[in-house]
Design a protein that fits this description.
ATP Synthase, domain 1, Single alpha-helices involved in coiled-coils or other helix-helix interfaces, 136 residues
């Protein structure tokens, strides 16, 4: 199909998405990046953040991710994500509780233990931000 590229988003527990898209945008180590059909091959890390995809009908879907890898080939895009969930799948009350727990834990940690707590907070805040896209 002209104007689209095949995308697969795979987590350790499921294939979240498999289909054609007009555009893929993801959070890379050096910032957000976009992929359109015809993009040159690329291999990069995926950071905590939001993946956006534009479907062939023009609608956009938001996906929260906690990191992984993205491979872009002429034949398609493969995302291997630690976690990934569509905005409308996110349980906002659970995400808010995770933010509260992470903040409380961060206050109690010594400097050496803060990195893991900070990452937990970043993941929880990201899920809440992406979940808001489902209600816009």
């Amino acid at each position: 199909m002209p104007g689209t590229i095949r995308l697969e988003i795979i987590t350790p527990t499921r294939t979240l998405f498999s289909g054609d898209v007009q555009m893929f945008r993801g959070p890379g180590a050096l910032g957000s990046f976009q992929v359109f059909p015809g993009h040159y091959p690329l291999l990069t890390t995926l950071e905590i953040g939001e993946i956006d995809v534009r479907l062939p009908d023009g609608t956009e879907r938001a996906i929260a991710t906690s990191g992984g890898f993205v491979e872009v080939l002429r034949s398609g895009i493969t995302v291997l994500a630690e976690t990934a969930e569509f905005a409308e799948e996110i349980d906002r009350s659970r995400a808010e509780e995770a933010v509260r727990r992470a903040r409380a834990e961060l206050e109690q940690k010594r400097a050496a233990d803060r990195v893991e707590a900070e990452l937990a907070l970043m993941r929880a805040l990201n899920r809440l931000r992406v979940a808001q896209r489902a209600h816009v």
